[in-house]
Amino acid sequence: MNAVAKLGLKQRYSLLTRGLDWEPSYQSKSAIYPYAEFEGIKIHDWSKWEDPFRLTMDAYWKFQAEKERKLYAVLDSFAQNNGQMGLTDARYVNAVKLFLTGVSPLEYQAHRGFAHVGRHIPGVGPRVAAQMQSLDELRHVQTQIHTLSHYNKFFDGLHEFPHMHDRVWYLSVPKSFFDDARTAGPFEYFIAIGFAFEYVLTNLLFVPFMSGAAYNGDLATVTFGFSAQSDESRHMTLGIEVIKFLLEQDPDNLPIVQKWVDKWFWRGHRVLGLVAMMMDYMLPKKIMSWREAWEIYFTEAGGSLFQDLSRYGLRVPKYADVATAEADHISHQNWAVFYQYTHAAGFHTWLPSAEEMDWLSEKYPTTFDKYYRPRFEMWGEMAKEGKRFYNNALPQLCTTCQIPMAYTEPGDPTTISFRHSHYKGDTYHFCSDGCKDIFDNEPEKYSQSWLPVHQIFQGNCGGASVEEVLKWYRLNLGADNLDQAGSPDQAQWDAWMEARRRVAG
Amino acid sequence: MTIEIKTLKVEPRRQTFGHIARRYGADKPASRYDEATLDVQATANFHYKPLWGADHWLYDERRTRVTMADWYKLRDPRQYYYATYNIARAGQYQTTERNIEFVDKRGLLAHLDPAWRETVETYLLPLRHMEWGANLNCTNICDLGYGTAVTAASIFAAGDHLALAQIIGRIGLLLDGNTGASLDRAKDRWMTAPEWQGLRRLTEDTLVVKDWFELLLAQNLAIDGILYPLVYGRFDAAGQALGGSAVSMLTEFMNEWFTEHSRWVDAVIKTAAAESPENRALLTGWFATWASRAAGAFAPLADHVLGAEEGTRALAEVVGGLQARAKTLGLAV
Ligand SMILES: [Fe+2]
Ligand SMILES: [Fe+2]
Ligand SMILES: [Zn+2]
Known about the structure:
The complex is a heterodimer. By secondary structure, chain A is mainly α. Helices cover about 60% and strands about 5% of the residues of chain A. Chain A has a single domain, classed as Ribonucleotide Reductase, subunit A (Orthogonal Bundle), CATH 1.10.620.20. The longest helix of chain A is centred in the N-terminal third of the chain and has 31 residues, at about 125-155. By secondary structure, chain B is mainly α.
């Protein structure tokens, strides 16, 4: 055993991991991997897969354990020192509520989804990478719960996050998004989550939340965000490698993949509307506007990405131009919806202050003053007269994205956009061409959508009155919902700040 | 800032989440395991039936014939959540890493009796493929299982089996001087050697089991329950007189892991069996099938390594131990 050969990382990884697989003979490959073919993706040679990172399990444990030790040390000290008192303002916590109820359950779905592809993708390289991502995503949901558990002790709106995620009207937007990906075949899931979400859109989700946390004194969430960054960079790499691999393996894969990219871009764009609203309206201290974030992370970064992918024949997702035009409107339209329905939401709303409106005018010079300021000012007047505006009619929802129909026609911000399709004798409604196309391509799937408003009308949500429905959501009425002003959260915050002023003399 | 805050009254308005408090019957501080685990999986109002299996919802209790009033009874006694799992494994692996270095530096594998060295190659190295099969099975249980209590522990077990396969791979590289030739030979054995074919058939057959709880039992109780005591107990003991202590050092992780893993498996099976006579009958039936299949599949390997007579006896004792274990879990063995 003298003169031991030194192994390169790639060779060592390949011996320890890639060599594990074998060609079965007692059971057929199609019995072991039953979902590998129904989507029509053709893979001729899995051995062509290049592992983008070569982590053996022991190295994974070591890196991840180190990160967890550091993260939990910060979380412990945040809790001990009542870190929530260092926030810029109590309004910030509403962003955290939206995150725990809307995003953390998606991390869980990602975890189970990557277990599914980590079992069912026939290539050993991507299969192991998917398994590690499954573990990472479990990490994300669990560390997020632990991070936000401390906020739950002091603030409303967080205490029933899994129950709410399965029921509340606006949370069916992110839930249906992930249910959609999870119920797709393994290759579509990989493109939907690994590529479209993790690679193309992730910066528009995590950068706003994590920088929002940093700007607003939320040390716990920031630490989590930083700690997850190295996981995310692995996820992005995997996403891009998978799409390239599929496109390289067979030209017939291109039209299938293109359709998925189009679909998941639009699905993702609709979900991110919630983030847009969070950035522009919910952060007491703003990072940048949604429009600016869209320009940096989609128009520029996405532009060069699709430039790069054009050599495979892939083009920019359909309706990317519409999405870009919507970046001037979407946050305002969404916040207006939540303001009107604040009695039915699990977080608080408010009207932007005069300074905030000026900031919005500056960031949205072509749209805010013209279309949105007047409405917010009118609502402000009404509130002053004791006639705070609530919308008590249940909204119609888009069958695909499940957002209330409040978006406007491309190029005409004064007309609500309505589309519809007929399927098996029923009419289905959509907010946009993008959502209608998605339905028309898979009507069997989307006609099943669990649409919260339909479900309320059908008596499946606790009762017919708003109050009964909210109780079924397990919202504490008068605490979790309604305006920030007058909420228990705000009262407690004011008391803290008052006491702090007294102590400071 | 700190002094200032100390003098403020900062009282929590609640101790934990509503779903945890309901389970505790009171709003009191919760463990990190509980908050990271209980009720985390969605249970209602799924939007679409899976394109890969429209007969079930995404998460569906009916993917197994086992029934539980509350799937979160299947708790992990180790209370692993992601952080504690990774920290525990990273610590355990440090010892393995040190042992590998020690054996390598001292050239301890050179002390192996040449015939036994050949035997070790025969019985140990092909096992990495079986571990890979176990990895896929545990990933599958995470995919199809119901409730985070059992699914999270299953993806941890999947990670464990990948690591176990890789430790065996590293032992192969120590034996062959990093050429990988021993691993190639091991794969040939796995594919064609008569003493391995029953085990490969067993492994491939588990890969197509549809009921995830049956798979959990087959893999984690029946197969692991014979493999570990037989290979890392009996085979290893037989090697002691033949210079095999270096191999014991290299596989210390396996024994330690198996003891710990069994605590989880036992808790899950025992709780499910205690739930109802129907569960108990179902688990008993599955155990009878898979334990006898596994015993039969290991017999040629035991004979090959220990000789026919000793092999038969050792395997019978291991199987007897497994049956006694199953009895303590409430199965009607
Ligand atoms: Fe994640
Ligand atoms: Fe991710
Ligand atoms: Zn829509």
